[in-house]
Design a protein that fits this description.
72% helix, mainly alpha, 0% strand, elongated
Length: 186
C-alpha cells in the first residue's frame, strides 16, 4: 500500500482513505496500546483517542520515515498521557530511585512464547511496565524516556533494570517450578 498517497487522500478529506489507514494500522496499534494498559478496554480507549490525534495531526507527518513509526509514536504518547491522567494508574505510575528489588544480570534459561512473555510484562507495576516497554520494545533511549516522562535518565535506567530483574526472577521461578513438576509428575 502506498502510504504517501493514503496520507494525501486522508488530508483531502477522503473518508475511504481514513478508513483504509485505520484498517491498515489499528490491529498493530491496539497491541501497542495494550502493552501500556492493564485491560483491553483501556487499550481500546487509548487506541480511539490515539487515532483521533493521528487524524487531527496528520498534516504534521513529514513523509520522512515510515507512517507506521509516526503513528506508533502518537499511540505511545497517547498511552502515556492516559496513564498519567487515569486514577487507576496514578499510584502505580511513580518513578522513584529507591531500591525495591535487587538488580541481577543473570539470564534465565527459559523458553517462552511471545504471548506468555507479554502477559508477564503486563504483571509488572505500571511504572516498570511503562519504562520496560518504552526501552525494550519501542526502542526509546533512556534520555528520550526521561524527557517524555519528566524524569531523569538515571531513574529511567534504574527502573528498567529493576523491571528486567523482576522479570528474570519470575522466569527463573517458572523454570524451577517446571523442573519440579517434571520430576514429580511422571
Amino acid at each position: 500500500m502506498d502510504h504517501h498517497k493514503l496520507v494525501r487522500d486522508c488530508l483531502n478529506g477522503r473518508r475511504e482513505a481514513q478508513y483504509a489507514l485505520y484498517e491498515e494500522f489499528s490491529e498493530n496499534m491496539l497491541a501497542v496500546c495494550y502493552r501500556y494498559t492493564k485491560s483491553m478496554t483501556d487499550a481500546e480507549d487509548v487506541l480511539q483517542e490515539g487515532f483521533i490525534k493521528v487524524f487531527k495531526n496528520l498534516h504534521q507527518f513529514k513523509f520522512e520515515g515510515e507512517l507506521g513509526g509516526w503513528i506508533r509514536r502518537v499511540m505511545v504518547t497517547t498511552a502515556l498521557n492516559y496513564l498519567k491522567r487515569n486514577s487507576r494508574y496514578q499510584s502505580d505510575l511513580s518513578f522513584t530511585d529507591t531500591m525495591m528489588h535487587p538488580i541481577s544480570t543473570d539470564n534465565p534459561e527459559v523458553t517462552m512464547n511471545a504471548q506468555d512473555l507479554a502477559a508477564l510484562v503486563r504483571q509488572l507495576p505500571t511504572g516498570y511496565q511503562t519504562i520496560f516497554n518504552m526501552h525494550a520494545v519501542e526502542g526509546y533511549t533512556h534520555v528520550e524516556i526521561g524527557k517524555m516522562l519528566g524524569i531523569n535518565e538515571g531513574t529511567s535506567r534504574s527502573q528498567y533494570a529493576r523491571a528486567r530483574s523482576l522479570l528474570i526472577s519470575w522466569l527463573e521461578k517458572q523454570s524451577v517450578e517446571k523442573k519440579i513438576d517434571s520430576y514429580v509428575r511422571p
